[in-house]
Each structure stands twice: as C-alpha cells, then as structure tokens.
Amino acid sequence: MREAMQFLHLCSIATWSGGVIIAGLITAPCLASANHFDDLALFGRRLSQTITVALAIVIATGIYNSWEGQGGSLVPLPHTPWGRMLLLKLSFVLLALGHGARVRFLLKAPLPWTDRQATIMRRWLRTEAMLMIAVIVCSAWLANLPPGEM
Questions:
Q1: Domain boundaries, the chain
Q2: Which stretches make up the Copper resistance protein D domain (predicted)?
C-alpha cells in the first residue's frame, strides 16, 4: 500500500509541477510574446483543470505518506531531519498553492485578454514554476533522508 501511495504521489506531483514549470517557463512566455493572449487564457484554464485533479491526489497521498513516514504520529515531526524537511517542503507547497489560486482567479477574467493580463499571468506562472522547482528539490532531499520512524 505504501509503495502504491508513493507512486501516485510522485505521478501527481510530476503532473502538477511539470505542468506549471513548462507553462511558466516556456508556454506562457511564448504565447504572450506572440500576442496570443486569448490562447494563453484558454491554455491556462485547461491546465488549471488538470492541475486541480493532480493536486487533490497530491494532498491525499501526501497526508498518507507523511503519517506513515512519522510512524503514525505527528509528535516527532519537528524533531527529525525528515520531519523538518517535510515541513520545509510543505511550506513551498502552500506558497505554490496560494500562487496557483491567484492564477486561477486571474483566469476567470473574460476574453478578450489584454497585454496587461498576459503579462501578469506570465509573471505569476513563472513565480509558481520557481516554487515548484523548490518543491521538487525538497522532495528529492526528503526521499534521501530516513523517515522519522527510523
């Protein structure tokens, strides 16, 4: 069960982070610089729907993995290297989640989009992409630490 949950967690993180990183560093800048503002908005809306599903899986499997990694107790969380790295990762996840909510709110703006909206979208997605890179770095570090229960 634990391996299946970890597999689902990693796949959904890859979907979320990969989508945001590619969108923030490649797709959004290309669409914005080509003045395809409405295409950027439509792309963002589709990406947001996909990421919402992946995020639900990330949260559910992340809670399970964290609980299991701490031996069924959250008491040792701040007292182990694994627990502290998990808290750091969680802080980046929450920042990225908040940024993603801002982007989703921007995507509710009606078409046609203006240059200003496209610029904001491009900047916010780039920031969210950087936060997702931090989440991936923390995840890699976390994977190489012994869980708190050990």
A1: 2-143
A2: 44-142
